[in-house]
Task: structure prediction
Amino acid sequence: RPHILSGMQPTSDSLHLGNYLGAQVNWVTLQENYTPYFCVVDLHALTVNPDPAQLRERTYATAAQYLAGGIDPERSAVFVQSHVREHAELAWVLNCITGFGEAGRMTQFKDKAGKRGQENTSVGLFTYPVLMAADILLYDAQAVPVGEDQRQHLELTRNLAQRFNSRFGETFVVPEPYIPEGTAKVMSLQDPTKKMSKSDEDPKASVSMLDEPKVNLKKIKSAVTDLDNNVAFDPENKPGIANLLRIHSALSGESIDVLVERFAGENKYGALKGEVADVVTSVQGPFRERYLTYMDDRAELDRVLAQGAERAREVASATLARAYDAVGLVPAA
Ligand code: ATP
Ligand code: MG
Result:
């Protein structure tokens, strides 16, 4: 079975609907035919200097949300990135074949660094995509199920793998992106030209997977749309409505055409929002309940994560040994 790898950062208490629809839904489907490795990428979260107690809690919370979303720890290796040392070690090797200008062209870095200002931007944030390349290449992953925002990072991963292979001999599998169609980019409820993001400071911008249903109802009701009050699928001119239609369609399975027909006519924004809130709640409510159950049993979570890390290390250590040998590092006697 071919391998897949993906992960999420423990940068907030709750995943949002974008993480769920853009990535996690595909993780669950892919576990049928692939050998999956799903990690909580805590080393990545360090790039934005999180509070230590909060990072610890959010690492468990993220793992519990993997399980709540339908990841089966018997079929998938569910683990914490820092439990497998090979991630940091391979990242160093890859840092040494990454161009400074190449890393500087990453738009996520430019966005995040722009917001934080130079004084608050760490070197870690700069080399974040190289660590991500290490995450993927360690597992010989053929596919990487992520949202659209990760496409450029994946392209860098492919370039690094090809560069390494041609310079030092075949070592890494060159991975393909696996990006869903409709919901590859779930947009902010408050600014539908920006993606929904864990690090968005405005809580009204994101549908949290762990919110109480009534909180989400309120957020969806107050989602920013447009003044035209005529439901149509027009991502260019009506990004807020397009976002709501995509969310509805992804969760309910109804096509966008069918939805547009149902809400055709004037003054249907309220009705559309009401239905979106219903379909969101019907998925997110039970998700939240399962999450709470998993969080109640830390010993069981620790057991799952230990088992996942053990499986991950089996593959990761072999790949790292191959890479170390290829570049000429002498093995420890
Ligand atoms: P942060 O703001 O801290 O970077 P994030 O919301 O971008 O958080 P990540 O942990 O960086 O979340 O990403 C986890 C996964 O979720 C990735 O596969 C990413 O592509 C996907 N993802 C993130 N935001 C969205 C979104 N708005 N729509 C679809 N997929 C998304
Ligand atoms: Mg992100």
